[in-house]
C-alpha cells in the first residue's frame, strides 16, 4: 500500500479553528484546545442571544408606541387594550414604525380609535 501522510489535514483543521477565534484574548486565540472550547461557548451564547434579541426589539417597539401615544392622552397599556377590543390586528412592530416615521398618520389613527 502507498503511504498516506495526514499532516495537511490536521494543519488545515487547526488553522480553521484558530482563524475562527481570531481576536479572542490570551490563549483562546493561540492554543487549539482552548480555541475549540471558546468556539463551543461562543456558539451557545450566539444561540441564546438570537432569542434575546426578539425580546429586545419588542421592548423597543413598546417604548416607541408609548412615546407616541402619551402626548395624545393615552398610556401604552390603555392604547393596546383599545386596539384589542376594537379588533385591530396591527402588531407592535408595525405600530412602532408608523409612530416613528409617520406621526401624523399615527395621530389620526389614535383619534379614530378613541
Give a concise summary.
With 114 residues, this protein is mainly alpha-helical. It contains 5 helices and no strands. The radius of gyration is 26 Å and the shape is rod-shaped.
Q: What is the domain total for the residues?
A: 1
Specify the helix fraction band.
Answer: over 70%
- CATH superfamily placement: Ribosomal protein L20, C-terminal domain
Main beta sheet: strand number and arrangement?
none
Count of discrete alpha- or pi-helical segments spanning 4 or more residues: 5
CA radius of gyration is: 26 Å
Strand content range? under 5%
Rounded to the nearest angstrom, the distance between the terminal CA atoms is 86 Å
- Please write the string of helix (H) and strand (E) elements: HHHHH
User: CATH topology, which one?
Assistant: c-terminal domain of poly(a) binding protein
Tell me, what's the shape? rod-shaped
Q: Count the strands?
A: 0
Describe the structure in your own words.
The chain has 114 residues and is mainly α. The protein has a single domain (8-113), classed as c-terminal domain of poly(a) binding protein (Orthogonal Bundle), CATH 1.10.1900. It is 74% helix and 0% strand. The chain is built from five helices and no strands. It has helices at 7-20, 32-69, 76-86, 92-101, 103-113. Helix 1 (7-20) packs parallel to helix 2 (32-69), helix 2 (32-69) crosses helix 4 and helix 4 (92-101) packs across helix 5 (103-113). The protein is rod-shaped, with a radius of gyration of 26 Å. The mean pLDDT is 94.
Q: What is the topology?
A:
Layout: H1 7-20, H2 32-69, H3 76-86, H4 92-101, H5 103-113
